[in-house]
Amino acid sequence: MVNINKNISLFQLQELLEANFQQKSTYLPEGFYKEQQKAIEIFNKRIFLEKVIDETISFNKKLVWTYEKSNLKLTKTAEELIEVFKLRSDVYTDINYQHEFPDTIEGLNFDKFDMTSAVIYYQKNKEVTASIRLIFDSKENLPTEGKVKFDDMRKKYNTIGEISRNVVKYRNEGLHQEFKYLMCGIYNIFINNDIDVALSGIRKDHLKLFKKLGGVEIYKEMEGYGSLDVPFLIISYNPEFASKFFKKVFLEQ
């Protein structure tokens, strides 16, 4: 179980440690200060984790979520989020994406964008086996804007977002089934909340699959994506234009 410590003393302790670190003594070896710096960095990461969990839960609880099947959920507890962060870390380590999507804390993969995201997960036999997030635009902008700007999309639409951290644990065992559920979750968030279009980075060879969903357009073609040296696309996705295939196969309408 994960208990979120919301006591202000945590932040007071952080300030005290950093203040003391600035006051070096001549009789202490330099190695002591290096170890102290590492300790402060670990403590700061813990403080950041507390903030991310707290604000992500608060953000998700304000969203409208109407999906009725119990195997797909919107994260609303610290325990659920920690399981999602663990899954991301495990998957990215397994597929060697850690350089592009590094853990903030070893074994836990999260960042500042989680705090304005609908974080969705799929559960199989009480185990979290897949997750995806839909980031709502904010003053922090969107993560892919480190590579390409979306200012033209902001002029065209009232609210934009970005789909990312799409991870599946058992990649050779039911990937399509879990992908189906995750996209149902994305659809649910789109339809019931104030968002117009989302951008997403995908491998070029995955375009055929995404096109079947409907409402998908190529926004930008790229030779690679960060350290990933494979053809990539930035696509825009609007579930309002979901295809008959998507409604029949994914939504079972």
From TrEMBL:
Positions in coiled-coil regions: none
Domain N-acyl amino acid synthase FeeM catalytic core: 83-235
A molecular function (GO) term: hydrolase activity
A Pfam short name: FeeM
Name of this chain's protein: N-acyl amino acid synthase FeeM catalytic core domain-containing protein
Gene Ontology biological process terms, A to Z: deadenylation-dependent decapping of nuclear-transcribed mRNA
Domain of life: Bacteria
Entries under InterPro entries matching the protein: Acyl_CoA_acyltransferase, FeeM_cat, Scavenger_mRNA_decap_enz_N
